[in-house]
What does this fold into?
Amino acid sequence: MSLVNFTNKEITCKIVYYGPGRSGKTTNLLYVHSQVPTDRKGKMVSLATTTERTLFFDFLPIELGTISGFSTRFQLYTVPGQIYYNATRKLVLNGADGIVFVADSQARQLDENLESMRNLQENLLAEGVDIRTLPMVIQYNKQDLPSDLILSKEELDETLNFREVPSFKANAIAGEGVFESLKGVSELVLRRLGEEAPG
Amino acid sequence: MTGVRAVEQWAEAPLANFVRESGARLSLLTTTSGQVVAQYGFTRSIDVMAAAALGAGVVASTSLMTQMIGEVGYVKINNRGPGQGIFLAEFDTPRGKYVILAVYGSGSSAGLVQLFFEDLVEEITSSCPAPETRRVILAEDFERELNDNLAALFGRK
It folds into this structure.
């Protein structure tokens, strides 16, 4: 849940990068971290295993600047993608204002993408949140791989994007699509904040 | 001046009293999802967010583990190192659950921090207002401001 301070005119929103294991969620945050000037970002916190797989979450706070007179901050989180870390995924989802679903574009990963999307829906429902009401964008990562290994944006949309949310092609290692995905979810989150009274 | 920076003004006086009485070096009041409500002692607002995220994560995971073994009640953790200690606890208010994180040194103790934590809970419970129902009014062209800010952040301007 976003935190709004009307006295100091500050907004803080929580955006969670969700998706199957090794789809590129941490890579998204690493790219954002590499691009944002030092005075506009905090330390990137990564709770990872010894093999650098996300264990609990990655966290990166960024100062976006002033929007409609409100000093706006985003807190970017990733969840662990591996199936057996569902308990911690649920904890990180708590209070999310928006989701960037990072899908792996490889054809052989389609089932993992679907399972992760289903898992997102279940975990949100367990928190009393309907996935259809939460701001979300989908990022199809690894679009730089050879075309015979990956599915096109249209094919992936057909399978994963049943809500017809904004979707973006990406190559997160090179930064392609990372900015666009963050911009897309930011717009949806802030628009929703303007439509609803904060709880 | 209390030295406390509060995102929500009702939290300033209770946290200032807690810091003064307990002798905590750093203190942080957050929501259970890791949003900062008030803080004392952190120098960069953006670093305080990392502490808030970690604190909320520890409380959330401990809470889940206690449920798994059939225990009920609020999480209260104390970790004492050779030089400094960390006290982390969750508590309920009419406004919802909150988390307090306090770092204390040799000038204080786990007992002292815990003692004044009970006072903090009472003060916050009695002073926090009901949740806000005000709406954020965004400019019609807020997307332009958002896009300009993001572009500047990513060095695209």
